[in-house]
UniProtKB/TrEMBL annotation:
Residue ranges that the Swiss-Prot or TrEMBL entry lists as coiled coil: none
MF-aspect GO terms: nucleotidyltransferase activity
Residues of the Mannose-1-phosphate guanyltransferase C-terminal domain: 291-408
Limits of the Nucleotidyl transferase domain: 4-202
Protein family according to the UniProt entry: Belongs to the transferase hexapeptide repeat family.
InterPro entries in the record: GMPPB_C, Mannose-1P_guanyltransferase, NTP_transferase_dom, Nucleotide-diphossugar_trans
This protein's name: Uncharacterized protein
């Protein structure tokens, strides 16, 4: 049997995702109309003999309760949320729930970061992992040398694919091959994590008896049960014939900011063409709105037939889109109203917001720049004919004048 674990973090993580993480935990923010973690979860469906999926985090249980019960019945597979009392790090959190994870006596365990967007080639990774015969196999990808330092950089053997060297977010360039945050392990991984905590405990005890040691390592005071997968496990085990790499040639993005989430929504919508074409809207401008490119529209949304929508648009539940509205490259969250002839381009419109008649909400569409897309928080009102360009607007604001390149607090 196989089980999958998704590390979802907690409210103190994901702060770069504000103001969109104010009312929904980041892992549940919708990309292509589905919660962020829905994409890895549905990729898990293709893993043979998958017994369970666990979500591990330090959010309150109730924040995930609804999603977990609906996805369990949709997948016909138990999906459980396990809450850590405090953050234990990416490997420590996983280790906390060793007994639950080992319940089904799995031969292999997938471990996925919640905040990556990719095609999740999990069955192919598992096959490669079995061929390599190591303890773990990680998904890796080549990125531009300029962006590599935001990730774990690594060197792999070109023939055997063994992980030879690993450095987490190095200051000087090591390699343009990086860690995607998607792994498959044998249960031996738990022993490796346990060893890190044991060693740390030994050192802490030593420090207590030896003031010389305390002077030598004054900053090494991580709690013994706080273990980071990258620094504490991957780096020391590289080059020991235990860890291997599987390189993806497909798309991959890390989802740390709202700007990038708009890009990821686009990537997932494009993927729907082959995986779930029934989720993509179609329209001809007669009975339904005109649809351009890849668009998702929730069945409860009401879209006027004279509206024109796409490409890269996702429209969530209970949204109302008026006559003559134009939407391009945007995420429209639940209960938003967009009134007649308004235009929204390269923007994310927060829950329950209202966009006035003939108004424009837009940005240049630079996904990486701080103000490269416009973001409206929850319940923002843009009055008729107002123009909002390259701006971030915090929840509950009313805009009756036009703004550009501003953060409205
Ligand atoms: N449950 C739980 N508890 N989850 C955690 C904790 C914790 O204490 N700490 C982190 N996580 C989760 C995060 O939600 C995320 O899904 C994953 O673990 C990794 O988070 P970080 O440890 O903050 O690392 P990162 O996202 O900056 O970078 C990691 O992922 C990159 C790929 O996206 C590293 O492994 C990089 O090397 C890698 O390139």
């Amino acid at each position: 049997k196989v089980v999958a674990v998704i590390m979802v973090g907690g409210p103190t993580k994901g702060t770069r995702f504000r103001p969109l993480s104010f009312n929904v935990p980041k892992p549940l923010f919708p990309l292509a109309g589905q919660p962020m973690i829905h994409h890895p979860i549905s990729a898990c469906k293709r893993i043979p003999n998958l017994a369970q999926i666990y979500l591990i985090g330090f959010y309150e249980e109730r924040e995930f309760a609804l999603y977990v019960s609906s996805i369990s019945s949709e997948m016909k597979l138990p999906v459980r949320y396990l809450k850590e009392e405090k953050p234990h790090g990416s490997a420590g959190g996983f280790h906390c729930f060793r007994d639950a994870i080992m319940e089904d006596n799995p031969s292999h365990i997938f471990l996925l970061n919640c905040d990556v967007c990719c095609s999740f080639p999990l069955p192919a990774m598992l096959d490669a992992h079995k061929r390599y015969g190591g303890m773990g196999t990680m998904l890796v990808i080549k990125v531009s040398p300029e962006s590599a330092s935001q990730f774990g950089e690594l060197v792999a053997d070109p023939v055997t694919n063994e992980l030879l060297h690993y450095t987490e977010k190095p200051e000087t360039f090591v390699s343009d091959l990086i860690n995607c945050g998607v792994y498959v392990f044998t249960p031996d991984i738990f022993r490796a994590i346990q060893n890190v905590s044991n060693n740390r405990e030994d050192r802490a005890n030593l420090r207590r008896v030896s003031s010389f040691e305390a002077l030598q390592f004054p900053t090494r005071t991580l709690p013994t049960d706080f273990v980071r997968l990258d620094q504490d496990i991957l780096s020391p085990l590289a080059g020991k014939k235990q860890l291997y790499t599987y390189q993806t040639m497909d798309f991959w993005q890390q989802i740390k900011t709202p700007g990038i989430s708009l890009k990821c929504s686009e990537l997932y919508l494009a993927q729907f063409r082959s995986t779930s074409p029934y989720l993509l809207a179609s329209g001809d401008g007669k009975k339904n709105a005109t649809i351009v490119g890849d668009v998702y529209i929730h069945p409860s949304a009401k879209v006027h037939p004279t509206a024109k929508i796409g490409p890269n648009v996702s429209v969530s539940a209970n949204v109302r889109v008026g006559a003559g509205v134009r939407l391009i490259s945007c995420i429209i969250l639940d209960d938003v109203e967009i009134k007649e002839n308004a235009i929204v381009i390269h923007s994310i419109i927060g829950w329950k917001s209202s966009i006035g008649r003939w108004s424009r909400v837009q940005a240049e569409g630079d996904y990486i720049a701080k103000l490269g897309i416009t973001i409206l928080g929850e319940a923002v009102t843009v009055e008729d004919e107002a123009v909002v360009i390259n701006s971030i607007v915090l929840p509950n604001k009313t805009l009756n004048v036009s703004v550009q390149d501003e953060i409205i607090l």
